[in-house]
Please model this.
Amino acid sequence: MPEPPQKPDVGEKHSSGKSAPKRRLMLKQAIMSRVLYALAPVAIGAVYFFGWRVLAVLAVCNAVGLAAEYIMARQRNAPVSQACLVTCCLYGLSLPPTVPLWIAAVGAVVAIVFAKEVFGGFGRNFANPAITGRAFIYICFPNDLTQQFVPAFKGFPGGFTQWSFDSLGRLPEYLSTQLAGTGRDVVDAVSQASPIWVGREYGLDAVVNSGQGATLWDMLTGSIGGIFQVPGQAAPRILSAGSMGEGCALLIIAAGVYLLITKTANWRLMLSGLVGLLAANVLFRNVLGYNGLGEVPPVEWQLSAGTTLYVLVFMITDPVSATKRRPAQYAYGALIGFLIVLLRFKGVFVAAATFSVLLGNLVGPLLDLGAAAWADWRKARKALVVAQPGKEGGQ
Model:
Protein backbone atom coordinates (compact mmCIF):
# COMPACT_ATOMS: atom_id res chain seq x y z
CA MET A 1 0.00 0.00 0.00
CA PRO A 2 1.54 3.35 -1.00
CA GLU A 3 2.66 5.83 1.60
CA PRO A 4 0.32 8.83 2.08
CA PRO A 5 1.46 11.88 0.11
CA GLN A 6 3.86 13.99 2.10
CA LYS A 7 3.40 17.70 2.57
CA PRO A 8 6.05 20.23 3.52
CA ASP A 9 6.12 21.84 6.94
CA VAL A 10 4.77 25.30 7.56
CA GLY A 11 7.40 27.86 6.64
CA GLU A 12 8.69 26.02 3.57
CA LYS A 13 8.25 27.92 0.32
CA HIS A 14 6.93 26.78 -3.03
CA SER A 15 8.58 28.00 -6.17
CA SER A 16 5.91 30.71 -6.28
CA GLY A 17 7.14 32.02 -2.94
CA LYS A 18 3.92 31.18 -1.06
CA SER A 19 3.96 29.25 2.20
CA ALA A 20 3.04 25.57 1.99
CA PRO A 21 -0.20 24.42 3.63
CA LYS A 22 0.07 23.25 7.22
CA ARG A 23 0.96 19.58 7.61
CA ARG A 24 -1.85 17.36 8.84
CA LEU A 25 -1.38 15.80 12.26
CA MET A 26 -3.54 12.75 11.47
CA LEU A 27 -4.36 10.93 8.27
CA LYS A 28 -8.08 10.18 8.28
CA GLN A 29 -8.98 6.75 6.94
CA ALA A 30 -12.63 5.82 6.44
CA ILE A 31 -11.99 2.08 6.73
CA MET A 32 -10.23 2.58 10.06
CA SER A 33 -13.10 4.72 11.34
CA ARG A 34 -15.49 1.85 10.65
CA VAL A 35 -13.26 -0.58 12.56
CA LEU A 36 -13.33 1.82 15.53
CA TYR A 37 -17.14 1.97 15.29
CA ALA A 38 -17.20 -1.85 15.40
CA LEU A 39 -14.91 -1.89 18.43
CA ALA A 40 -16.97 0.67 20.40
CA PRO A 41 -19.67 -1.80 21.60
CA VAL A 42 -16.95 -4.33 22.45
CA ALA A 43 -15.20 -1.70 24.59
CA ILE A 44 -18.46 -0.70 26.30
CA GLY A 45 -19.16 -4.35 27.00
CA ALA A 46 -15.66 -4.68 28.49
CA VAL A 47 -16.43 -1.82 30.89
CA TYR A 48 -19.65 -3.54 31.95
CA PHE A 49 -17.85 -6.82 32.61
CA PHE A 50 -14.63 -5.50 34.17
CA GLY A 51 -15.13 -1.90 35.33
CA TRP A 52 -13.86 1.50 34.28
CA ARG A 53 -10.22 0.48 34.50
CA VAL A 54 -10.74 -0.86 30.98
CA LEU A 55 -10.83 2.72 29.71
CA ALA A 56 -7.66 3.51 31.65
CA VAL A 57 -5.84 0.67 29.87
CA LEU A 58 -7.16 1.84 26.49
CA ALA A 59 -6.21 5.44 27.26
CA VAL A 60 -2.64 4.46 28.15
CA CYS A 61 -2.28 2.29 25.04
CA ASN A 62 -3.59 5.01 22.74
CA ALA A 63 -1.62 7.84 24.36
CA VAL A 64 1.67 5.93 24.23
CA GLY A 65 0.98 4.53 20.75
CA LEU A 66 0.08 7.93 19.28
CA ALA A 67 3.15 9.54 20.83
CA ALA A 68 5.40 6.79 19.46
CA GLU A 69 3.96 7.04 15.96
CA TYR A 70 4.13 10.84 15.98
CA ILE A 71 7.82 10.80 16.88
CA MET A 72 8.58 8.27 14.15
CA ALA A 73 6.27 9.71 11.47
CA ARG A 74 7.59 13.24 11.79
CA GLN A 75 10.99 11.96 10.64
CA ARG A 76 9.30 11.15 7.31
CA ASN A 77 7.34 14.40 7.35
CA ALA A 78 4.17 12.25 7.42
CA PRO A 79 1.00 12.49 9.54
CA VAL A 80 -0.03 9.97 12.16
CA SER A 81 -2.37 7.41 10.60
CA GLN A 82 -5.79 6.69 12.05
CA ALA A 83 -4.76 3.04 11.86
CA CYS A 84 -2.65 3.78 14.94
CA LEU A 85 -5.86 4.14 16.98
CA VAL A 86 -7.16 0.84 15.63
CA THR A 87 -3.92 -0.93 16.52
CA CYS A 88 -3.88 0.48 20.05
CA CYS A 89 -7.55 -0.37 20.69
CA LEU A 90 -7.23 -3.90 19.30
CA TYR A 91 -4.10 -4.44 21.34
CA GLY A 92 -5.57 -2.94 24.51
CA LEU A 93 -8.75 -5.00 24.36
CA SER A 94 -6.69 -8.17 23.94
CA LEU A 95 -5.12 -7.69 27.39
CA PRO A 96 -6.28 -8.97 30.80
CA PRO A 97 -8.49 -6.51 32.74
CA THR A 98 -5.96 -5.90 35.52
CA VAL A 99 -2.79 -5.83 33.42
CA PRO A 100 -0.21 -3.41 34.90
CA LEU A 101 -0.43 -0.14 33.00
CA TRP A 102 3.32 0.05 32.41
CA ILE A 103 3.28 -3.37 30.74
CA ALA A 104 0.39 -2.25 28.52
CA ALA A 105 2.48 0.80 27.57
CA VAL A 106 5.51 -1.34 26.69
CA GLY A 107 3.43 -3.50 24.38
CA ALA A 108 1.94 -0.43 22.67
CA VAL A 109 5.43 0.89 21.89
CA VAL A 110 6.48 -2.47 20.47
CA ALA A 111 3.29 -2.67 18.38
CA ILE A 112 3.71 0.78 16.83
CA VAL A 113 7.48 1.19 16.60
CA PHE A 114 8.91 -2.28 16.04
CA ALA A 115 6.01 -3.89 14.17
CA LYS A 116 5.04 -0.93 12.02
CA GLU A 117 7.21 2.21 11.93
CA VAL A 118 10.59 0.54 11.43
CA PHE A 119 9.21 -0.89 8.17
CA GLY A 120 8.20 2.53 6.87
CA GLY A 121 4.87 3.22 8.56
CA PHE A 122 1.30 2.45 7.60
CA GLY A 123 0.88 -0.01 4.77
CA ARG A 124 4.41 -1.41 4.92
CA ASN A 125 4.36 -3.69 7.96
CA PHE A 126 4.34 -7.43 7.26
CA ALA A 127 2.97 -8.49 10.67
CA ASN A 128 -0.13 -7.44 12.54
CA PRO A 129 1.10 -4.73 14.99
CA ALA A 130 -1.52 -5.40 17.68
CA ILE A 131 -0.76 -9.12 17.72
CA THR A 132 2.98 -8.43 17.75
CA GLY A 133 2.68 -6.17 20.80
CA ARG A 134 0.58 -8.73 22.64
CA ALA A 135 2.94 -11.59 21.81
CA PHE A 136 5.94 -9.57 23.01
CA ILE A 137 4.59 -8.83 26.48
CA TYR A 138 3.11 -12.33 26.77
CA ILE A 139 6.57 -13.82 26.29
CA CYS A 140 8.46 -11.19 28.33
CA PHE A 141 6.02 -10.95 31.25
CA PRO A 142 4.21 -14.32 31.37
CA ASN A 143 3.40 -14.22 35.08
CA ASP A 144 2.07 -10.67 34.96
CA LEU A 145 -0.09 -11.49 31.97
CA THR A 146 -1.49 -14.88 32.97
CA GLN A 147 -2.20 -13.88 36.59
CA GLN A 148 -4.24 -10.79 35.74
CA PHE A 149 -7.47 -12.49 34.65
CA VAL A 150 -10.47 -11.94 36.92
CA PRO A 151 -14.16 -12.96 36.94
CA ALA A 152 -16.65 -10.72 35.19
CA PHE A 153 -19.17 -8.56 37.01
CA LYS A 154 -22.72 -9.82 36.58
CA GLY A 155 -26.16 -8.30 36.70
CA PHE A 156 -27.04 -4.63 36.40
CA PRO A 157 -25.21 -2.25 36.66
CA GLY A 158 -22.27 -4.65 36.47
CA GLY A 159 -18.93 -2.90 36.20
CA PHE A 160 -20.46 0.50 35.40
CA THR A 161 -20.27 1.36 39.10
CA GLN A 162 -16.87 -0.23 39.74
CA TRP A 163 -13.28 0.71 38.93
CA SER A 164 -12.07 -2.88 38.71
CA PHE A 165 -12.42 -6.29 40.28
CA ASP A 166 -9.34 -5.70 42.45
CA SER A 167 -10.69 -2.39 43.76
CA LEU A 168 -13.56 -4.22 45.49
CA GLY A 169 -11.28 -5.70 48.11
CA ARG A 170 -13.66 -8.64 48.31
CA LEU A 171 -15.46 -11.08 46.06
CA PRO A 172 -18.67 -10.01 44.29
CA GLU A 173 -21.84 -11.23 45.96
CA TYR A 174 -22.53 -13.98 43.44
CA LEU A 175 -19.09 -15.48 44.10
CA SER A 176 -19.31 -15.06 47.88
CA THR A 177 -22.64 -16.89 47.87
CA GLN A 178 -21.25 -19.79 45.87
CA LEU A 179 -18.10 -19.99 47.96
CA ALA A 180 -20.05 -19.95 51.22
CA GLY A 181 -21.59 -23.25 50.29
CA THR A 182 -18.18 -24.89 50.07
CA GLY A 183 -17.25 -24.26 53.71
CA ARG A 184 -14.05 -22.46 52.60
CA ASP A 185 -12.79 -18.96 53.24
CA VAL A 186 -12.20 -16.55 50.42
CA VAL A 187 -8.42 -16.89 50.79
CA ASP A 188 -8.67 -20.59 49.95
CA ALA A 189 -10.05 -19.88 46.51
CA VAL A 190 -7.68 -19.28 43.62
CA SER A 191 -8.75 -16.99 40.80
CA GLN A 192 -6.81 -16.68 37.50
CA ALA A 193 -8.18 -19.83 35.89
CA SER A 194 -9.82 -18.78 32.62
CA PRO A 195 -12.18 -21.10 30.68
CA ILE A 196 -9.64 -22.00 27.99
CA TRP A 197 -7.06 -22.88 30.65
CA VAL A 198 -9.54 -24.88 32.75
CA GLY A 199 -10.66 -26.84 29.71
CA ARG A 200 -7.09 -27.64 28.80
CA GLU A 201 -5.83 -28.59 32.26
CA TYR A 202 -8.85 -30.05 34.04
CA GLY A 203 -11.36 -30.89 31.34
CA LEU A 204 -14.64 -29.26 30.43
CA ASP A 205 -16.63 -31.18 33.02
CA ALA A 206 -14.98 -29.12 35.77
CA VAL A 207 -16.89 -26.00 34.78
CA VAL A 208 -19.42 -26.70 32.03
CA ASN A 209 -21.44 -29.51 33.60
CA SER A 210 -21.36 -27.82 37.00
CA GLY A 211 -23.11 -24.81 35.47
CA GLN A 212 -20.81 -22.47 37.34
CA GLY A 213 -20.08 -19.61 34.97
CA ALA A 214 -18.76 -21.31 31.84
CA THR A 215 -21.76 -22.71 30.03
CA LEU A 216 -22.07 -21.97 26.33
CA TRP A 217 -24.56 -19.21 27.11
CA ASP A 218 -22.18 -17.67 29.65
CA MET A 219 -19.43 -17.50 27.07
CA LEU A 220 -21.72 -16.15 24.38
CA THR A 221 -22.85 -13.33 26.65
CA GLY A 222 -19.53 -12.78 28.44
CA SER A 223 -20.97 -13.50 31.88
CA ILE A 224 -18.02 -15.68 32.89
CA GLY A 225 -17.23 -16.34 36.53
CA GLY A 226 -18.04 -18.85 39.22
CA ILE A 227 -16.74 -21.45 41.66
CA PHE A 228 -15.62 -24.83 40.38
CA GLN A 229 -14.02 -27.84 41.94
CA VAL A 230 -11.02 -29.65 40.46
CA PRO A 231 -11.29 -33.42 40.95
CA GLY A 232 -8.83 -34.59 43.57
CA GLN A 233 -8.30 -31.12 45.06
CA ALA A 234 -9.89 -29.93 48.26
CA ALA A 235 -9.81 -26.17 47.66
CA PRO A 236 -12.40 -24.72 45.28
CA ARG A 237 -11.26 -22.42 42.48
CA ILE A 238 -12.65 -19.25 41.01
CA LEU A 239 -13.26 -19.23 37.28
CA SER A 240 -12.00 -16.07 35.60
CA ALA A 241 -12.95 -14.49 32.31
CA GLY A 242 -10.42 -13.89 29.55
CA SER A 243 -9.11 -10.71 27.98
CA MET A 244 -11.16 -7.53 28.06
CA GLY A 245 -12.46 -7.66 24.50
CA GLU A 246 -12.93 -11.39 24.02
CA GLY A 247 -15.58 -12.17 26.65
CA CYS A 248 -18.87 -11.48 24.90
CA ALA A 249 -19.02 -13.56 21.74
CA LEU A 250 -22.35 -11.99 20.68
CA LEU A 251 -20.83 -8.49 20.58
CA ILE A 252 -17.92 -9.73 18.50
CA ILE A 253 -20.26 -11.51 16.09
CA ALA A 254 -22.32 -8.32 15.74
CA ALA A 255 -19.12 -6.37 15.04
CA GLY A 256 -18.15 -8.92 12.39
CA VAL A 257 -21.54 -8.60 10.69
CA TYR A 258 -21.15 -4.81 10.62
CA LEU A 259 -17.66 -5.05 9.13
CA LEU A 260 -18.90 -7.42 6.43
CA ILE A 261 -22.00 -5.36 5.57
CA THR A 262 -19.93 -2.19 5.23
CA LYS A 263 -17.30 -4.12 3.22
CA THR A 264 -14.68 -3.10 5.74
CA ALA A 265 -13.47 -6.66 6.33
CA ASN A 266 -12.67 -9.21 3.64
CA TRP A 267 -15.20 -12.01 3.89
CA ARG A 268 -12.77 -14.50 2.30
CA LEU A 269 -10.30 -14.08 5.14
CA MET A 270 -12.98 -14.36 7.83
CA LEU A 271 -14.75 -17.33 6.27
CA SER A 272 -11.59 -19.27 5.43
CA GLY A 273 -10.32 -18.79 8.99
CA LEU A 274 -13.58 -20.23 10.32
CA VAL A 275 -13.48 -23.14 7.85
CA GLY A 276 -9.86 -23.92 8.75
CA LEU A 277 -10.71 -23.99 12.45
CA LEU A 278 -13.76 -26.21 11.93
CA ALA A 279 -11.81 -28.60 9.70
CA ALA A 280 -9.00 -28.94 12.23
CA ASN A 281 -11.44 -29.47 15.09
CA VAL A 282 -13.29 -32.22 13.23
CA LEU A 283 -10.03 -33.84 12.13
CA PHE A 284 -8.38 -33.99 15.54
CA ARG A 285 -11.43 -34.53 17.74
CA ASN A 286 -13.83 -36.58 15.63
CA VAL A 287 -11.61 -38.36 13.09
CA LEU A 288 -8.39 -38.95 15.04
CA GLY A 289 -10.15 -39.25 18.39
CA TYR A 290 -8.29 -36.64 20.43
CA ASN A 291 -11.28 -35.81 22.60
CA GLY A 292 -10.04 -36.65 26.09
CA LEU A 293 -8.74 -34.56 28.98
CA GLY A 294 -6.43 -31.81 27.80
CA GLU A 295 -7.05 -32.59 24.15
CA VAL A 296 -9.35 -30.99 21.57
CA PRO A 297 -12.62 -29.54 22.96
CA PRO A 298 -15.98 -29.45 21.12
CA VAL A 299 -16.19 -26.94 18.31
CA GLU A 300 -18.64 -24.65 20.13
CA TRP A 301 -16.16 -24.36 23.00
CA GLN A 302 -13.33 -23.79 20.53
CA LEU A 303 -15.20 -20.86 19.04
CA SER A 304 -16.60 -19.21 22.14
CA ALA A 305 -13.73 -19.71 24.61
CA GLY A 306 -10.53 -17.73 24.32
CA THR A 307 -9.73 -15.18 21.63
CA THR A 308 -10.94 -17.23 18.67
CA LEU A 309 -13.79 -15.00 17.48
CA TYR A 310 -11.85 -11.83 18.32
CA VAL A 311 -9.02 -13.03 16.06
CA LEU A 312 -11.32 -14.21 13.27
CA VAL A 313 -13.16 -10.88 13.13
CA PHE A 314 -10.47 -8.30 13.83
CA MET A 315 -7.00 -9.81 13.41
CA ILE A 316 -7.12 -12.13 10.41
CA THR A 317 -8.89 -9.42 8.40
CA ASP A 318 -6.14 -6.80 8.85
CA PRO A 319 -5.82 -5.49 5.25
CA VAL A 320 -2.09 -4.74 5.51
CA SER A 321 -0.61 -7.90 7.02
CA ALA A 322 -3.04 -10.31 5.31
CA THR A 323 -2.53 -11.77 1.86
CA LYS A 324 -3.71 -9.78 -1.17
CA ARG A 325 -4.53 -12.35 -3.87
CA ARG A 326 -7.77 -14.32 -3.69
CA PRO A 327 -6.38 -17.88 -3.71
CA ALA A 328 -3.78 -16.86 -1.15
CA GLN A 329 -6.46 -15.31 1.07
CA TYR A 330 -8.33 -18.60 1.31
CA ALA A 331 -5.13 -20.46 2.19
CA TYR A 332 -4.01 -17.76 4.64
CA GLY A 333 -7.23 -17.75 6.65
CA ALA A 334 -7.53 -21.54 6.63
CA LEU A 335 -3.93 -21.90 7.83
CA ILE A 336 -4.48 -19.59 10.80
CA GLY A 337 -7.75 -21.28 11.76
CA PHE A 338 -6.09 -24.71 11.56
CA LEU A 339 -3.11 -23.54 13.64
CA ILE A 340 -5.35 -22.19 16.40
CA VAL A 341 -6.71 -25.67 17.05
CA LEU A 342 -3.35 -27.39 16.62
CA LEU A 343 -1.39 -25.04 18.91
CA ARG A 344 -4.07 -25.14 21.59
CA PHE A 345 -3.86 -28.90 21.48
CA LYS A 346 -0.09 -29.37 21.31
CA GLY A 347 1.45 -26.00 22.20
CA VAL A 348 2.92 -25.03 25.55
CA PHE A 349 1.31 -21.59 25.63
CA VAL A 350 -2.45 -21.09 25.78
CA ALA A 351 -2.17 -17.96 23.59
CA ALA A 352 -2.46 -20.13 20.49
CA ALA A 353 -4.46 -17.60 18.47
CA THR A 354 -1.75 -14.95 18.89
CA PHE A 355 1.03 -17.17 17.58
CA SER A 356 -1.20 -18.57 14.82
CA VAL A 357 -1.72 -15.09 13.37
CA LEU A 358 2.00 -14.31 13.54
CA LEU A 359 2.84 -17.55 11.75
CA GLY A 360 0.23 -16.68 9.13
CA ASN A 361 1.80 -13.24 8.70
CA LEU A 362 5.19 -14.86 8.07
CA VAL A 363 3.83 -17.31 5.50
CA GLY A 364 1.50 -14.78 3.84
CA PRO A 365 4.02 -13.30 1.37
CA LEU A 366 4.93 -16.79 0.17
CA LEU A 367 1.25 -17.57 -0.37
CA ASP A 368 0.90 -14.40 -2.46
CA LEU A 369 3.96 -15.37 -4.52
CA GLY A 370 2.54 -18.83 -5.03
CA ALA A 371 -0.81 -17.41 -6.11
CA ALA A 372 0.93 -15.05 -8.54
CA ALA A 373 2.99 -17.90 -10.02
CA TRP A 374 -0.16 -20.00 -10.40
CA ALA A 375 -1.96 -17.15 -12.16
CA ASP A 376 1.00 -16.63 -14.52
CA TRP A 377 1.13 -20.35 -15.31
CA ARG A 378 -2.59 -20.44 -16.09
CA LYS A 379 -2.29 -17.34 -18.26
CA ALA A 380 0.65 -18.82 -20.18
CA ARG A 381 -1.16 -22.12 -20.63
CA LYS A 382 -4.27 -20.36 -21.89
CA ALA A 383 -2.20 -18.35 -24.35
CA LEU A 384 -0.57 -21.55 -25.60
CA VAL A 385 -3.94 -23.24 -26.12
CA VAL A 386 -5.20 -20.23 -28.09
CA ALA A 387 -2.08 -20.14 -30.22
CA GLN A 388 -2.05 -23.92 -30.82
CA PRO A 389 -5.66 -25.15 -30.46
CA GLY A 390 -4.80 -28.54 -31.95
CA LYS A 391 -2.65 -29.38 -28.92
CA GLU A 392 -5.40 -28.87 -26.35
CA GLY A 393 -5.94 -31.97 -24.28
CA GLY A 394 -2.54 -33.39 -25.23
CA GLN A 395 -3.30 -33.86 -28.98
Summary: Residues 167-239 form one domain. The longest strand covers residues 190-193. The beta strands are 26-27, 80-81, 190-193, 226-228, 237-239. The chain has 15 helices and five strands.
